[in-house]
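Researcher: Here's a chain I'd like modeled. Treat it as a single chain, no partners, no ligands.
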Amino acid sequence: MTTTTLWRPVGPAELALIRLSGMKAFPPRLPEQPIFYPVTTEAYAIKIARDWNVPASGAGFVTRFEVDSAYLARHTPQLAGGRAHEEYWIPAEDLGAFNAAIQGPIEVVASFPSDPDA
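Model: Modeled as a single isolated chain. Structure tokens:
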């Protein structure tokens, strides 16, 4: 099976739910979150975790995971403001199938506290 590496910037609450899954799945979207947005580069995930998650929740984390490429081929990558900001738009109702296509664990590869000395 061929896999594709994706990243997902998350805040502390979402990371806690990922940990509850045994680092195997992303939590269901909230009603006001109709789309799940994994991104295609670590640099873009870092930017979101550092610049959005830290101010919003005090910390940001970058997760990395492998997804079955055949499953991912059903979705078209989208540009969110520029070539360096490529992401997949997975409808909330498809998140279960997306999670089933994850191969191996979801890993935390970077973290950003709001206090640089923390």
